[in-house]
Design a protein that fits this description.
The chain has nine helices and two strands, in the order ααααααββααα. By secondary structure, the chain is an all-alpha fold.
Length: about 290
């Protein structure tokens, strides 16, 4: 009994030290953002975000490049699904934009208990929302691609194959963006960018392996998957990125780890809608007019 008591206290002390360390780290970010030189602080915060955007573009570029070497027709598959993909994804992007503001307000005020509640509401809603969006993309994709986007018949089967697998990316990218938003609300923009770079490099490596396959003698170690291989490379890479940001958040800021809940506060829903509603419009407008 005495030994179990010591172990229990050890765990409690370890958790308290971890929480204190996380709070100290957040306070250091807060101090640097508020009192640091404006130009240097903007560069320090903005450069990793630029890297994240380049990483997101690299997924599509890598898939297109390797598929262009595989087939003169199949390489157009990723480009065909992105308008519908981004249209649906804009909804979760709006939720993320709203909660970046809400979480950062409470973190800035050092109200960490309320920040954790918002994180739990946000991640729980994001998980449900993106699962629903992925299902809509999967079920309505064939109709949209055939009758709305008028995908050429010779490309249609490739597009459907790619879309069915990449629908998982709607869920994973939503979770990745969700946990990245928590880091950004804290003031840590570097951790998500590092995880994104690792994920992008993994995608670039896996693409040729999954698209063309890997043969040892007369046998394939990795089967040739073509368009499906490009989609699976993206999904697995995104999964690695999400796991990376989750592990770092759990280790550095365990008091901000979300607890799944279906009891969503109505006030939080109202504020999220009020702040985030304009975002899908701004996200879609440039794409329609470029």
């Amino acid at each position: 009994m005495f030994k179990l008591g010591l172990v229990g206290k050890g765990i409690k002390v370890s958790c308290e030290l971890s929480t204190q360390s996380g709070v100290y780290s957040i306070d250091s970010y807060r101090e640097r953002i508020i009192n640091g030189p404006v130009g240097r602080t903007l560069f320090w915060l903005g450069l990793p975000l630029m890297v994240v955007q380049l990483v997101n573009i690299s997924y599509n570029l890598a898939d297109t490049y390797w598929l262009s070497l595989y087939s003169p027709i199949a390489y157009a598959s990723p480009r065909q699904i992105w308008p519908f993909f981004m249209f649906l994804n804009a909804i979760s992007q709006a939720l993320s934009a709203a909660n970046l503001a809400l979480i950062s307000q409470h973190v800035g005020a050092r109200n960490y208990d309320h920040a954790k509640r918002i994180v739990s509401y946000y991640v729980s809603t994001l998980l449900i929302l993106n699962a629903f969006i992925a299902l809509v993309f999967l079920l309505l994709g064939p109709i949209v691609f055939k009758y709305v986007m008028a995908v050429p018949q010779e490309l249609y089967d490739y597009v459907l194959t790619y879309a069915r697998i990449i629908s998982l990316d709607l869920l994973l990218s939503g979770l990745y963006v969700g946990y990245s938003t928590i880091f950004q609300a804290i003031g840590d923009t570097r951790t998500p960018s590092r995880a994104g770079v690792v994920s992008a490099v993994m995608n670039i490596i896996l693409d040729p392996l999954f698209i063309f396959g890997v043969r040892l003698g007369d046998n394939y170690i990795i089967p040739e998957m073509g368009v499906a291989g490009a989609a699976w490379a993206t999904v697995l890479s995104r999964l690695v990125g999400f796991i990376a940001v989750y592990i770092v958040l759990r280790e550095r800021y365990p008091f901000l780890i979300a607890k799944f809940t279906l009891r969503i506060d109505r006030g939080w829903l109202y504020n999220s809608f009020k702040i985030g509603a304009p975002c899908p419009i701004t996200l879609q407008y440039p794409r329609d007019h470029c």
